[in-house]
């Protein structure tokens, strides 16, 4: 069952954006705009958590187990510079 918030203070630009979304027909109500925004934020936070647990954590753990396997920063920087030079040359 829907519940109502007592008061929600929003900046003028946020209020304008919400009203524009409703006026465009993209959303039926201001509440729908806010709910969609909160769901999008939650989705992004969930994806960040998944990335941290599935990618960052295992990479960190692997580095802790075998730090000598890491590529030296000098070679990483050289590779990045070479790639940046190629991009500049292409443009």
Write the layout of secondary structure elements.
Elements: H1 12-23, H2 30-65, H3 73-90
Structure commentary:
This is Type II toxin-antitoxin system ParD family antitoxin. Keywords: Toxin-antitoxin system. The chain is mainly alpha-helical and 91 residues long. It has one domain (12-90). Helix content is 73%, strand content 0%. The protein contains 3 helices and no strands. It is elongated, with a radius of gyration of 23 Å. It starts with 11 loop residues before the first helix and ends with a helix.
Entry summary:
Pfam families: ParD_antitoxin. The chain is mostly helical and about 90 residues long.
Question: What value does the average pLDDT take?
Answer: 95
Largest sheet: none
Query: Which word captures the global form?
Result: elongated
Number of E strands:
0
- β content, as a range? under 5%
Whole-angstrom Rg? 23 Å
List unreliable stretches of 5+ residues.
Answer: none
Task: Give the end-to-end Cα distance, rounded to a whole number of Å.
Answer: 56 Å
């Amino acid at each position: 069952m829907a519940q109502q918030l007592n008061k929600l203070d929003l900046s003028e630009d946020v209020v304008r954006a919400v009203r524009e979304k409703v006026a465009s027909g993209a959303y039926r109500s201001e509440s729908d705009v806010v709910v969609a925004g909160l769901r999008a934020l939650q989705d992004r936070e969930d994806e960040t958590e998944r990335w941290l647990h599935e990618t960052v954590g295992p990479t960190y753990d692997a580095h802790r187990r075998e730090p000598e396997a890491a590529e030296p920063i000098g070679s990483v920087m050289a590779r990045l510079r070479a790639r940046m030079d190629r991009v500049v040359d292409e443009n």
